[in-house]
Design goal:
elongated; mainly alpha
Length: 320
Amino acid sequence: MLLFALCGLAVAGGLVALVAWARGSEPADEDETARRDNPLADRAHVFWYGAPGTASMRMVRLRRVQLPIALAGAPLAWLFTGIPLTALLVPLAVFGLPWLFDTTRPDTHRIERLEALSEWTQRIADVLLLGVGLNQAIVTSRRTAPAALEDEIGELAARLQARWRPEEALHAFADSLADATADKVLAALVLRAGDSGPGLARTLSDMADSVREEVRQRRAIEADRAKHRTTIRWLVGIIVLVVTIGSFNTEYTRPYGTFLGQIVLAVVAALFVAIIAWMRALASHPPVPRLLTPDRRSRGGRRGGQVGEAEPAEQLGEVR
């Protein structure tokens, strides 16, 4: 009876998650501000979406699909195999395999965003040379924004049109990108927000060249690492396929239904997860510390997107 009750709760939870996925949601500016002010919420955001900054739509859709599959697959696997531990292993597989393959996939998304940043920076520099102000140049750039940064640039332009301070709007833009290279460009814009003369245009042009060179180097590195990523994918895929096919053989899975079999299965699963995590650590690289970080001492004047009276020098944040 306890098993059926747990299965009923899991199925009900899966239906609720499916309805939430179908409805969808868009994060409000207030939620983004609250998350940046709350370290615990920021860590939870990184844990759930895998990266700081604004979550990509691909990751949001993936989480909406994974949650109901995990909630519905756990009790079904328990009923099908008769092994209680599978109720834990199935959610681990649903969330863990994409987590592994996402790291072993070439980091094209971040490279494309950096390439779009260099293109946008060069356009801003060209417009500033015509004598246009920085705010107007950013608002105008929304119409020709690169596709990889179209949403972020649109939000930046909207904040400026809503009379946000340029420093605050650029900080929010930097938080949505959450990249050390982007911070170098935005730090120059923050420091020269009130003076958009030819010096700023030349600085942005030089930074655009620097970002393009970094993009070229990253593409070369990703090409060298592609072979090792492919090896990891094949290795994990073959192991998962063998385990899935073996689960249909009751003679093969019967020993794991005993108490001793549960312990052995838990140890084997833990070792497999540890090896997968180790391979993922080898395939990934630690992010470079950001230049612009939120300074919570200057947040007292902001409430829900309203700009307070903090001094511009404080808006630069902490430099690490």
